Amino acid sequence: MLWPAAAKAVMKMGPDREVVSVYPYRSACPSSVWRSLISEARQELTFAGYTNYFLWLDHPNLSVALRKKAEAGVRVRFLLGEPDSEITRRREAVEDTALTLSTRIHISLEHLRRLGGTAAIEARYSAAEAHVALSVFRFDDQMLVTPHLANLVGHDSPMLHLRRLQDDGLFDRFASHTEQLWADGSPV
Asked: How far apart are CA 138 and CA 140, in angstroms?
């Protein structure tokens, strides 16, 4: 190669090559990215945020899109925190916001109830402490990941946009974590 430094500057070749983009705040990720990821998914949509509350506010007609995806054979899953759990109560004390975690979870549950009758949309509660600190949203071979920082709410935490390009890379590690949370969860 004539100019290896120039090529390396444009091509990701190391372990970070699965990182598509990084946002300093979840709220900085454009809604067009979310819309594109949801609309392009053909096999799986997994929303493993502790409340998933913001989805219903930030994405008009999300329920219609999810129903269509489910009817087309896409597996649609929601993993939520248990609204009445000790983990939720402790996190509410840390966040200290008027719109509590349990309220946000109940709002998501109401939206999911309105989707009732769509058997392909599954929902589970997670009882894991590890779930409250990490949100993973999967769209086939891409995902958006939010590691929650200290006492900040989700929209104030950073977000990574990942694309699966290798075995046991970042994508697979977060996917494995989410699958374990799902397996350990209980039906809503």
From this structure: 6
Model-wide pTM > 0.85: yes
Residue with tokens 């590690």: 173
- Residue-wise pLDDT for 138-148, tens only, equals 999 999 999 98
Q: What is the pLDDT of residues 4-36, one digit of tens each?
A: 555 444 555 666 899 999 999 999 999 999 999
